[in-house]
Specification:
The protein is an alpha/beta fold. Helices cover about 55% and strands about 15% of the residues. The protein has a 5-stranded parallel β-sheet with strand order 2-3-1-4-5, sandwiched between helices. The chain is globular and about 45 Å long. The relative contact order is 0.21. Bound molecules: ligand Z5A. The site of ligand Z5A has 26 residues, from helix 1, helix 4, helix 6 and helix 8.
Length: about 210
């Protein structure tokens, strides 16, 4: 049985990752291909508990502790959900993964990039394809208002932080062009979906 392919969606807040993850999973299902859609931080009961700690606006973590919490949640998620699904031939679509740690805790919070890369290596799973949705940070507030949830701990960080995060994602995509596709996200949902489907077909050879 062929191993499933691992696809991640990355980008700043409100860039449309969840929307496009749903659309991509629907395209796999319509093509009768086995698919699992999941998200980070989270994806297992244990990792969802860690997510609640990470997003709680009443808590403050040092960058290293925050990085390790994301790593702990990811280690659970990979071992218990993502890797078994890929081994069983199921394609996995994940809303955020290790690039978010480098972008947020590394570029955004100034955490040690080498330590973050080492942690990613310990967890040891690399995406086959990463779709980086690139939204100018000044467009995020309107998207988040449209979504209508209260602001979590990350959404309270300032404009300069989100500019660094965006630069981080663009740097990651630029450094790994074989894995990453940078997609302008200030565009119509269906046009973004079409670009994503094209990338999946062209990069992974999957017929959608
Ligand atoms: N985090 C971290 O620091 N380190 C890590 O390692 C990881 C995560 C894994 C939680 O993530 C936080 O964890 C996150 C980074 C941090 N915080 N921040 N910022 P999350 O995934 O729960 O939060 P998020 O990434 O900010 O998700 P989001 O706000 O839900 O955004 P999204 O998934 O990219 O967007 P969406 O929900 O698909 O769309 C938002 C709204 O815009 C919604 O009303 C849509 O209908 C609308 N939308 C979507 N696409 C469009 C287009 N094309 N045009 C117009 N409107 C659109």
């Amino acid at each position: 049985m062929a191993r499933g392919r691992f696809i991640t969606l990355e980008g700043g807040e409100g860039a449309g990752k969840s929307t496009q993850a749903r659309r991509l999973a629907a395209a796999f299902a319509a093509a009768k291909l086995p698919v699992l859609a999941t998200r980070e931080p989270g994806g297992t009961p244990e990792a969802e508990r860690v997510r609640a700690l990470l997003l709680d606006p009443g808590l403050a973590w040092t960058p290293l502790a925050e990085t390790l919490l994301h790593g702990a949640a990811r280690a659970e998620h990979v071992a218990r959900v993502i890797r078994p699904a890929l081994d069983a031939g199921t394609h996995v679509i994940c809303d955020r993964f290790a690039d978010s740690t480098l972008a947020y805790q590394g570029y955004g919070l100034g955490g040690d990039h080498g330590a973050i890369v080492t942690l990613a290596g310990l967890i040891g799973l690399r995406p086959d394809l990463t779709l980086v949705l690139d939204l100018p940070p000044e467009e995020s507030p309107a998207r988040l208002a449209a979504r209508g949830a209260g602001a979590d701990r990350y959404e309270r960080l300032g404009a300069a932080f989100f500019a660094r995060v965006r630069d981080g994602f663009r740097a990651i995509a630029g450094a790994e062009p074989a894995r990453c596709v940078l997609i302008p996200a200030a565009d119509d949902e269906t046009r973004i979906e079409a670009r994503i489907l094209d990338a999946v077909r062209a990069r992974l050879g999957i017929s959608l």
